[in-house]
Amino acid sequence: MLSIGSTVLTVEDIDRAGDFWRAALGYESRGEPSDDWVILDPPGKTHWAAPGASLALSVTGYPQHYPPRIHLDLYAEDQAAEIQRLLDLGAREVDWDDYPDDADWVVLEDTEGNRFCVVQTGPYPQG
To answer: What InterPro entries is this protein classified in (predicted)?
Structure first.
């Protein structure tokens, strides 16, 4: 059986991206970053198979594509406060005109142009 080990984001500046995502998620570097790779884990994760999604950052030299084919959804109990906190960390708002009237998400991008959504959480649907 397979499981997702890490989601990998391509970046140009691994130090800047690492600083952003560690601050945004409260994650820690699994080890010392190399010049082109780092894995970030939730605090207290001590084994690769332990619960909690990891995020890897990779310098590839390839340009960012728009729109990206994959993005992260970050869940927030206080969406407005989290959006402001992320903007203060260096995230940028994405000028996106396709929001439906009942959208519960806002599209942002990190310091490297990787897009992510901040989703307002609510009751977990049952069944």
So the answer is: Glyas_Bleomycin-R_OHBP_Dase, Glyoxalase_6, VOC_core
pLDDT in tens, the chain (127 residues): 667 889 999 999 999 999 999 999 999 999 999 999 999 999 999 888 888 899 999 998 777 777 777 889 999 999 999 999 999 999 999 988 888 888 999 999 999 999 999 999 987 666 6
List of long-range contacts for 101-109, beta carbons under 8 Å, 24+ apart: 104/79, 105/73, 106/79, 108/83
Predicted TM-score (pTM) of the model is: 0.87
- Domain parsing of the chain, residue ranges: 6-120
Q: Report the distance separating Cα 48 and Cα 38, nearest Å.
A: 14
* Record: fold of 6-120: 2,3-Dihydroxybiphenyl 1,2-Dioxygenase; domain 1 (3.10.180)
86 CB contacts (<8 Å, ≥6 apart)? 24, 108, 118
Give dist(CA 58, CA 14) in Å, integer: 7
